[in-house]
Amino acid sequence: MLCLRDEAVLIPQPRGSLPKVCAGLLAAIATGVLLFTSPERIINLVALASLIVTLGPLLSGLCLLAEEVLHHSSTRYRGRSLLGHIMPACGLGGKTLLAAAMACLLLYATKHSLHHKDQHWELVVLVPAVYTLLKSLAVLGLSEVEVSVICEERKMNVAHGLAWSFYFGYLQLVLPSLEASIDSFRASHQGSFQSRGSQKLIVLIPINANISHKLEDEDSNIKFYDSLPNSQMDMAGIRGRVYKHSVYRVQDEHGKTHECPVEYATPLLTLYRMSQDRNAGFGEPERRQQVLLFYRTLQDILEQSLECRNRYRLILLNDEHEEDPHFLSKTILKHLEQQNKEEFCLSSAPQQETNKVAQMEDWHNPDPMSREPTLMISLERPQPLRGPVENSDIS
């Protein structure tokens, strides 16, 4: 069974700043070594290295700029300005140009050491040219980690689009009216929805993205009960589009049944079918990562949504327990029990505060008719009302 601690282990968290710290540490160590070996040339060497490093991306950006201006300026940029959009898109942004300009200024300020016999100015020309060639051949391309960081920071993953689509196209539309639908269902089905936690829409998110269209096929302890009243609304040219939820009865180990609306997150079907299609270029490892990112993104979206707050329950299903035939029902019942405890704590806390306030008011304003007289006996020796009189000389 997957608990919150297990979720923290499975779900990838946003990457931190450790690479930046390591890069800064390496730069500090290299600068310290040069400061120890060649203290009189340290500024000139740092400026020369900065110029060589920045010229490579500048030349590579110029090559990209030629392609974009000649062949894609009208179709990809639609009349956007060269300086404002095309050049930054090719890597010729302000940071790169500023770094190159600062390196040139440092070299000019240290021009007294420009003709030092140990300096190889040929590298200023050769290294950027070789860098541009290797970059164009994808030898110096971005690593998978760097691509992943860019996609996650800019919300460019498949999972981000699916999560936002699932929210705007479905959850945001149906969750606000879920409570009214359940109340109408309870009126026509006596004795249903006894527990408070079952009145939330349970959304199942299996990590393997393998979804069964009938929950009975996954677990024999889960039976279809009925459907909630349909919600209809006009959407995207479709008149009276119908949205509905299925109510299932989940049987526990004691034979007691618990009703709750349960369904899988339908965007996972897209991820699963993409991993089965050769043209999608989407393997099983990528699918697993996208499912976890989908769960994290959807959870973040729903936590910030006022319309959907306290109306849903996301359950991440680990695929390492497939040998248990009743894993799904146990997981659902566990979350229902946890939800019941949370609701009980939230509902009992204000009552406890009210009782405390009432007790304080009774203490400060006691009712004389509600208290019986009591006899208080002290075992301590009696003390004089006044202290001992000190002897003084009378003149």
What is the topological layout?
Layout: H1 4-10, H2 18-37, H3 42-71, H4 82-89, H5 94-109, H6 122-136, H7 144-153, H8 158-174, H9 178-188, E1 201-206, E2 222-227, E3 231-235, E4 238-243, E5 246-251, E6 257-264, H10 267-276, H11 284-303, E7 312-317, H12 327-364
Parallel strand pairs: 1-6, 1-7
Antiparallel strand pairs: 2-5, 3-4, 5-6
Helix pairs in contact: 3-5, 3-6, 8-11, 10-11
Description:
The chain is of the alpha/beta class. The protein is 51% helix and 11% strand. It is built from twelve helices and seven strands. The chain has a five-stranded mixed sheet. Strand 3 and strand 4 form a beta hairpin. The model is unreliable at 346-350, 360-364, 366-372 and 389-395 (pLDDT under 50).
What is the N-to-C order of secondary-structure elements (H for helix, E for strand)?
HHHHHHHHHEEEEEEHHEH
Uncertain segments: 346-350, 360-364, 366-372, 389-395
The main sheet orders its strands as 2-5-6-1-7
Number of helices: 12
**Approximately how much beta-strand content do the residues carry?**
5-15%
Total strands: 7
Structural class: alpha/beta
